[in-house]
Target: Aminopeptidase N
Amino acid sequence: PPPVRLGDYRPPDWLVDTVHLDVQLHPTAARIRARLALRPNPEGREGSPIVLDGDELSLKSLTLDGVPLAGTAYVVTATALTLLAPPQRALTLEIETVVNPSANTKLMGLYRSSGTYCTQCEAEGFRRITYFPDRPDVLAVYTTRIEAEREEAPILLGNGNPVESGPVEGTSRHYAVWHDPWPKPCYLFALVGGRLDRIADDFVTATGKKVELGIYVEPGKTERAGYAMDALKRSMRWDEEVFGCEYDLDVFNIVAVADFNMGAMENKGLNIFNDKYVLASPQTATDADYANIETIIAHEYFHNWTGNRITCRDWFQLCLKEGLTVFRDQEFSADARSRPVKRISDVRLLKSHQFPEDAGPLAHPVRPSTYREINNFYTATVYEKGAEVVRMLKTLLGEEGFRAGMDLYLDRHDGDAATVEEFLACFADANGVDLTQFALWYAQSGTPQLAVSGTWDAATHRYRLDVAQSLPATPGQDQKQPMVIPLAIGLVGPDGRDLPLTLDDGSNAERGVLRITEPRQSFVFRDIAERPVPSLNRGFSAPVKLSSDLSTADLLFLARHDSDPFNRFDAAQTIALGHLVAASAAARAGSDVPVPDALVEALGATLADGALDPAFVAQALSIPSEADVAREIGVDVDPDAIHLARTRLRRAVSAALAPQLAATYDRHAPAGTYSPDAASAGRRALRNSCLDLLAAGGTPDALARAQVHFDTADNMTDRFFALAVLAHAAPQAREPALAAFHERFRDDPLVVDKWLALQAQIAEPEALERVRGLTRHPAFAWTNPNRVRALIGSFAGLNPTQFHRADGAGHALLADAVIDIDGRNPQLAARLLAAFKSWRSLEPGRRASAEAALRRVAAKPGLSPDASDIVGRSLE
Ligand code: B3K
Ligand code: ZN
Model:
C-alpha cells in the first residue's frame, strides 16, 4: 500500500452518530451485529460511496434500513466493504460479521488472553471486529450488548456505564448492556469477557459525584492490585487539582491481561492493561515496577481528557494525546515522588531511547508527515520528545501562561478530534504570543545541537555567553530552520551561589531562561564581579545535545555546588562520559587512560553529602551506560572496547571509594517491613547502587556481601538486584543463584520474565547460547509478548557486546526471531526489529553483519507491512 500523507487529509465523507453492537462471544466464532446510524458529512464530498474498513472479517449479512442489500450494491475486499451508491441521507446499516478470537495471534481486535476475551483497537483494530470508518475523526455514541456462556465469562465489561444485565432465558448464556454517552472514535472501543476477580473501591469527584472503581485480575491475584487502585485514586484527585479535569462516568474499570502488545490502553471507562503494569506485591515486584505501575495507571487515566474527551483528528496528530499525556504523567509522578530524581530518570530514558532514534535511520518528527504503518509510530519520539515539547511550552510561557493555555484547550476543544495547530493556537491565544517558530519542534526531526562558550571580562564585570545552534540532516529533511530553544541557565559564583542574571540592557533573563531563536546569539550579563561557572540547560530545559567549553574543574565545581539538582547530576556524568569516550578509544588501541581524579572526587563528595536525597545519590553514582558511550562516540563504534573501558572505570571507582560505599551500604540497611513509597525506595536504590559498585571491584569481600544480600532479601527489589549483581559479577555464584530464584518463582510468569531478561543481559559470549536455550525452556512462549520482550528484547536492547558480536551471531539471532514472530504478531516483530536502529554507527564489520541480518528479514516472503516498514527505513 502507498504511504499515508498528512497533506492528503480530507474530512470523512460519512459520519456515524450511533453504534449499537451485539457481540456473541464464542471461542472460535464470535458473532458481531453492528447497527450504525450514518449520515453524509456536510464537510465531505457529495455523493460519496460509504467505505468501511475491514480486516480478516467474515461478512454474514448486510442490510440498509432493514432491507438486505443486493449483491451488486456493495463490494467486499480484504480491506474494505464499499456501498457503491448509497442514498445521500441519514440511514442505518446492519452488519453481521464473524471473527475467530482464538486464532487472533496479532492481539489486535477481539482476541483471547488466557481464556479471557478482550479487545485492542488502537490504532486500527476495530476494523477487525466489524466494518467501520476506522479513523479517529469519526465520533459516535456506543451501546454494546455482550453475550457469553456464563460459565466461560461470568464477567462482561464494556465502555461507559452499565445499563442492564441478566440471564438469557432458557440457555446457559447471560448478557450485559453498556452505554457510553460520550462520543468517541472507534479506537477507544473495548469489551472484556472472562472469569476474573475484582477489587472494588470508589472515588468522589470534586463536584461530589461518586464513581465506582474496579480492577479485574486473574483469579487469585486481587491482593496484587491494591497499589494500582491506590495510584488510580491519586491520579483522579491530581488531575482535578492540577488541571481541573474531573471524571465523567459512573464507573471506571481496569482489566489486567497477560497477553498484550504494549503497556496499556485508555479505552473509555475500560482501560485494558498488560498485567505487568497492574500486579505488584513486595515479593514479586521491584521498586521500579511499582513506579511504572503508578505512572502508567496515571497515564491511561489522564487520557480520559487528553485523548478521549479531546481526541486526534488523524494519526499524524498522535503526539497531541501521547506527548501531552506523558508530560502529565511525568508531572504527576514528580509530585508524588522526588521531582529532581524523576526529572533525572525521565531525561535518562529520553537520551537512551529517543536520542538514538533521532540520530538514526528511523528518525521522524514528533508529528510525522507520512507513514506506512501507524503502529510503528508509537515511538520514543512521539511520546518522550513529544512530552519534552510540551514541557518547553511550559518553560517558555511560565506556570500560569501554560495553565491558561491548557484551560483554553480543554474548554475550546472538548468533544473535538483536534490537531497540533489547534493545540498550539490555544497557548498562543491565551498568552498573546506567536508560536510559529515553536511549531518547528513538531515538524523537524533530529536532536538540536547547542555549542556554548563563555567569556568573563574582569575589567567590565561582564560575562558573555555565545550560543550556536544547529540541527543535523535527518531522513527526508536536508535543510533545517533554527528552532526556538528555552535554555535555562545559572551563573554560579565562586561561593556556589547563583548570581543575578541581569542582561546588559538592564532586563532580566525571565525565570533564568534564555530564548535561543537564531543560529548564533550572544547574551551579555552585567555586574558579574567574579568569574562564574555557567550552569547550562538547567533541569534539561530543552531536549538538545549541548557542548560547552567548561573544564573538568568547572564540571567538578558544578557537581558539588550547582543549586540545580539535574545539572549537579549531569556535571559528573559529563566528566565520566568524556573519560569513557577517551578510554574506549584507548582500549581499542590496546592501551588505557587514567581515571580522572575529578570524577572520583565528585562521586565521593556526593556520597559524603548527608543532606542529599538517597534516590538522587543513587542516580549520581551510576556510571553512564555502554549505550550512552556508544551514542557519544557516534561513528565506528566498537562495543567491546566500550565495555572494557566501562568495566575498568567501574573497577577503579570501586577501588577508590570502597570504604565509603561499604559505609553507605551499611547505613542504609532496611528498617522495618517493605514499603514501596519513594523514600523507602530511594534508600534501597542507594544501598543497591553501593552494592553494585562494590561488586564491580570483584573483591571476595564485595561478592560475599552480594551473596548475603541475595540470601537475606525479604522483597523483590533487593532479591533481584542482588541476583543481577551475582549474575554479572560473580560467575561462580551465578548458576546457583539463578536456579534458586527460578525455583522460588517458577509459577509466577512476571517474575520469570525478570529471570529471563537478566540472563539475556550477561555480557559474556555464552549469553547467545543461553538465550537460545531459554527459548526452549518451559517458561518461555513465543506467543506471549512479555516473554519475548523479556528474553529477545533484552538481549537485543540491553546486551550490546553480545547482540553486536563480531561474528554476527547476535544479529542473526534477532533476525531469526523476527522472521518467526512476524507470521503471528507483526507488531511485536516490528518492535524487536527496531533494536537495529543504530546499526549504521557500528564499526564496518558489525555494520556489515547488521545489514546482512536486515536484508535477510527484508527478503522473507510475506513479510508484514509492520516489519517491512521498519526494515525498509532502516536500510534506506
Ligand atoms: N494509546 C495506547 C497505545 C496504543 C498502541 C497501539 N499500537 C497506550 C498509551 O499510550 O496510553
Ligand atoms: Zn498514551
Remarks:
- The two ends are 18 Å apart (CA to CA).
- The longest helix spans residues 380-412.
- The pocket of (3S)-3,7-diaminoheptanoic acid (ligand 1) is lined by residues 122-123, 262, 264-266, 299-300, 303, 322, 375, 378 (CB under 6 Å).
- The chain is about 40% helix and 20% strand.
